[in-house]
Amino acid sequence: MIEILNQSQLDRAKDSGALVATILQAMKRRATVGTNLLDIDRWTHQMITEAGARSCYVDYAPSFGRGPFGHYICTAVNDAVLHGLPHDYALVDGDLLTLDLAVILDGVAADAAISFIVGSSRPAESVALIETTEAALAAGIAAAGPGVRLGDISHAIGTVLDRAGYPINVEFGGHGIGSTMHQDPHVPNTGRPGRGYKLRPGLLLALEPWVMADTSKLVTDDDGWTLRSATGCRTAHTEHTIAITEDGAQILTLP
């Protein structure tokens, strides 16, 4: 289903996006050396509840997962990149942490992800991964607007990732979003310009470039959820929810 939101829903989407951004930035500040991933999950749960919102993850049970996700935020460390299931792990200096969060507030969902390095270390490979996904996301957003084809966004994202030399996985990518977290259309992280669905005002998209340093192959942890690079290389993932407007695109999940 592709959902086109009315003005009232778009106004509520801005509130949802602002909440997601606020929580992610709060968790980034609290994710210091020694912080446990389960504490990040607990703090996220508290902020969602206090805002009167609802997690999109706790009862999330798609075909590729193992039962309900059961947690409030995805926490992916180093070689983990997607659907990182929070577990008993204390962060160390130099860890590359990705936080991915989706909530529903007043009936409308928003979804975003940030990758950052914990502590004072700045490994060059990790910095490059993060900067590339951020640049790819910016390119995809810049390409979005009414009348634009979905392939134009995918092509803009993929061009940045490809030029940086990273293999591109197309199993998981961006997606439509609205009254539920995952909707059509699927937004691959590479594609052909001029192809695909023509964007319309009122459409919400969650764009999410992600890369692995030297492979496009994923493996799944024994927890049935966490997706890692097949080679053990580091990864990064950046995501915003955007609204297609009459004259372009508006980012709803900016800090």
Structure description:
There is one protein chain. The protein has 255 residues and is an alpha+beta fold. The protein has one domain: Creatinase/methionine aminopeptidase superfamily (Creatine Amidinohydrolase). Helix content is 28%, strand content 25%. It has 4 helices and 14 strands. The chain has helices at 7-30, 37-50, 124-143, 150-163, and strands at 54-55, 74-77, 80-82, 96-105, 108-117, 174-176, 183-187, 204-207, 210-212, 218-220, 227-229, 235-237, 240-245, 248-251. Strands 7-6-8-13-14 form a 5-stranded antiparallel sheet. Strands 1, 2, 4 and 5 form a 4-stranded antiparallel sheet that branches. A 3-stranded antiparallel sheet has the order 3-11-10, with no helix packed on it. A hairpin with a 6-residue loop joins strand 10 (218-220) and strand 11 (227-229). Helix 3 packs antiparallel against helix 4 (150-163). The radius of gyration is 17 Å and the shape is globular. 49% of the residues are buried. The model has no long low-confidence stretch (mean pLDDT 97).
List the helices and strands and how they pair.
Layout: H1 7-30, H2 37-50, E1 54-55, E2 74-77, E3 80-82, E4 96-105, E5 108-117, H3 124-143, H4 150-163, E6 174-176, E7 183-187, E8 204-207, E9 210-212, E10 218-220, E11 227-229, E12 235-237, E13 240-245, E14 248-251
Antiparallel strand pairs: 1-4, 2-4, 3-11, 4-5, 6-7, 6-8, 8-13, 9-12, 10-11, 13-14
